[in-house]
Amino acid sequence: MNQMYPLVYARDVARLGVPQYLATQCQPDTLDSYKVNGKIVLCFIGQGRNVDKGIEVSKAGGVGLILANNQDNGNTIFYDSHFISATGVGYDGAVTILQYIYSTAYPTAMILPAQSVSYTPAPFMAGYSSRGPNHVDAHILKPDITAPGLQILAAWSEASSPTKLPYDRRSTKFNLYSGTSMSCPHVSGVAALLRAVHPNWSISAIKSALMTTASVTDNLNNPIQDYTGNPATPFVFGSGHFQPIKASDPGLVYDISYDDYLHYLCTINPGLLNKVNAKINCPNQLASPLNLNYPSFVIPNLYGPVTVTRTVTNVFDGQSRYEFSWNLPQGVSILVSPTVLVFDHVGQSFSFTMTIFPANDYSVRNQYVFGWYMWSDGRHLVRSPFAVFLP
To answer: Which positions fall inside the Peptidase S8/S53 domain (predicted)?
Structure first.
C-alpha cells in the first residue's frame, strides 16, 4: 500500500508468439512473467471470466489489475471478487490510462485501500440492461421502469463463494452483484410497501404509481444517460428511475382490471385465452391493443392519425383540477380531449383521448421518436412516456 508500482499494458507484456487480442484480454497463459513481475497490468474485458484475468496477472507475478471496458461496454464498470488487488474503469478511463502509459517514460500506479465514493452522473443505464422495443407486442412500451441494479452490496450466503467458482474457497456475508436479480428486489420491495400503505389498490394501480412518478433526470439534473454517455430513451429506462416516496402519493393512477387484460389478449392472440383458462368470448370487432389502460404506449407505425384512449382514477384525498401537458418529438403532432379534468372525490375516474398525427416533416423517418404526456394539479406530476415509429 502507498507504494508506486510500474504500470504496463497487457499487450506489451505478452509471451512471445501470443496473438495480441488474447494478451490484451489477459487470457490464460498469455503474459510473460519476466515482463509482468512486480507490476500493475491494464487488461481489457472480453472473452473469459473477469476473475480469471486477475488470476493470469497474479500467476505472472503482477501485483495489481486494472480491468478496462472495451468500447462496446462504454462506461458500465464491472467489479468482481478478484484474487488480486484490482479495480475497474470504463472505456473513457481506459483511453486516458493508455494515453498516460504511452506518453510517459516510466508510468506508475499506486494501490490504495478501497473507499466509498459518490458517483456522478447517477443513475445511468448499464450496458447489459434489457432494451425495447417490445418483441411480444410492439404496442406496449418496455421496459416499464428502472431501479438500482449495478454493483449492489447485498447479503450473501456463506455456503457459496463470492465467485461461485469451484476453486474459490473464500466465504463472505456480503457481496457485490449486478443485474435484474438486484433491481427486481428493489421494485418488489417498494411495491410491497405501497400495498401496505394502500391495501385497496390493485396491482395495476401500484405499477402505475411507480411508473408515473419515476424520474428521468440524474443527480446533476441532466437527462439520464445510457452507458455510452448519450441520453437514454424510454426503450432503455421505461418511465424512468423509480422514486418510492413519490409513488406513495401519485395523485392519479391508470388502473387495469383482470377482464381488461383478457380483452387485451383478444386483440393480440385469442389463443392465449385457453392457456390462462379464461371464460370469455372475444368480440367480433376487436379494439386496438393500444387501448389497454397502460401508463405508456407505443405506436409501431404512424401512417395516419391514431387515437389512444386512457382512463385515470383519482387516488388523492381531496378535490383537484388536473391540466394536460405534453412534450412532442419531432415529426409528431397531437390533439387531446379533454385537456382539463376536475375531480371531487377519491375513486372518481375520467377518460381522455389522444389523437397522434404524423407531422409533415420528412427529415424524421424510419426511426422511433419519443415524447411524454402528463396530468398535473400543481402538486402531482402524473407523467407517461410514449414512442412512435415514423415509417
So the answer is: 118-240
Q: Where exactly are the structural domains of the chain?
A: 4-110, 245-390
The strand pairing partners of 7, in sequence order, are 40
Which residue in 345, 332, 355, 351 sits closest to 293, CA to CA?
351
**pLDDT number for residue 298:** 98
**Distance, CA of 387 to CA of 332 (rounded, Å):** 10
Report the half-sphere exposure of 59 (CA within 13 A, side-chain side): 13
Q: How many CB atoms lie within 10 A of CB 157?
A: 10
Q: Enter the pTM of the model.
A: 0.87
pLDDT tens string 289-342: 999 999 999 999 999 999 999 999 999 987 899 999 999 999 999 999 999 999
The residues near 377 (Cβ < 8 Å, ≥ 6 apart) are 251, 316, 320, 321, 322, 323
CATH number of 245-390: 2.60.40.2310
